[in-house]
Amino acid sequence: MDASTQSTELTGSFTAAAWDRIAPIMAEIEALPLLQQLSDGTLPPEVFRHYILQDALYLKHYARCLAIVAAKAPDNAQVLRFLGSAQKAITVEQGLHAGFLTQFGISSADVASAEPSPAGFAYTNFLLATAYHSSYAVALSSILPCFWIYWHVGEAIKNRPVIEGNAFQAWINTYGDPQFAAGAREVIALTDIAARAASPVERAQMTDVFVRASQYEWMFWDSAWRLETWPV
C-alpha cells in the first residue's frame, strides 16, 4: 500500500477526513520547485545544503516532541507502539542526515552553530507547544503530517524514472523505503485509535493542528528553496 492510496483504505476514519482536508495544501507541496528539482537531480547544491541543515535542526526538536507525545499515551501498549514507530523514523532520518552532511561538507560544528530559519523556528515551536499543552490525541495529530507527508512525497518521487547520477537519490530512497512507510502507518493507526476515544471538541482540535502542521510542512520546504534567513 502506498501513501496515495492510504486515505482510501481508511475511508470513514478521522485520518482519512483529515487527509482530504489538506488536499489543497498537498497540491501546493507537490508543486514545490524544491521537490521537483530534487526528484530530477537539478536542485542547486546550496539549496539542498540549506534544507538538510535546517532539517537536522528540526529533527532534534521533533524527536523531543515524539517523546512527549509517547509519555501522554493512555496505556503501555500505545506507548510502546508509538515509541517503536518514532524510533524507526528517527533512525532512518539520522542515517540520511549523516550521509548528506558529509556529502555536502557540513560539519558537526556547522550544525551546532546553525540558527533555525524563521519557518523552522515557528514550526518546531508550534509542535513543542502543542505536545506540552495539549492532550495525547491532539498532540499526536500535530506530529502526524511530518510522517505522512514525507511518506506520500517519497512514494510519489520513488515511482518516477530514476535519474542516473542524482545526488539526492538517497533522500528519495529513504522516504520511499518500507521501513519509513511502516512507521508512518503505525502513527496513522494510533491517531485513529485516539480519535475514536476523543470528544467532538477534541476531534475538532485534532483537525486544526493537523492542518496547521501541514501548512508548516509547505512553509519549511518553501523557506529552504528561498534560502530563508532572518530579515533583521
Automatic annotation (TrEMBL):
CDD domains: TenA_C-like. Pathway: Cofactor biosynthesis; thiamine diphosphate biosynthesis. It catalyses: 4-amino-5-aminomethyl-2-methylpyrimidine + H2O = 4-amino-5-hydroxymethyl-2-methylpyrimidine + NH4(+); thiamine + H2O = 5-(2-hydroxyethyl)-4-methylthiazole + 4-amino-5-hydroxymethyl-2-methylpyrimidine + H(+). Residues 19-226 form the Thiaminase-2/PQQC domain. One of its GO terms (molecular function) is thiaminase activity. Keywords: Hydrolase, Thiamine biosynthesis. Its EC number is 3.5.99.2. InterPro entries: Haem_Oase-like_multi-hlx, Thiaminase-2/PQQC, Thiaminase_II, Thiamine_Salvage_TenA. One of its GO terms (cellular component) is cytosol. SUPFAM superfamilies: Heme oxygenase-like (SSF48613). GO terms for biological process: thiamine biosynthetic process; thiamine diphosphate biosynthetic process. Belongs to the TenA family. Catalyzes an amino-pyrimidine hydrolysis reaction at the C5' of the pyrimidine moiety of thiamine compounds, a reaction that is part of a thiamine salvage pathway. This is Aminopyrimidine aminohydrolase. It comes from Rhizobium sophorae. The gene is tenA.
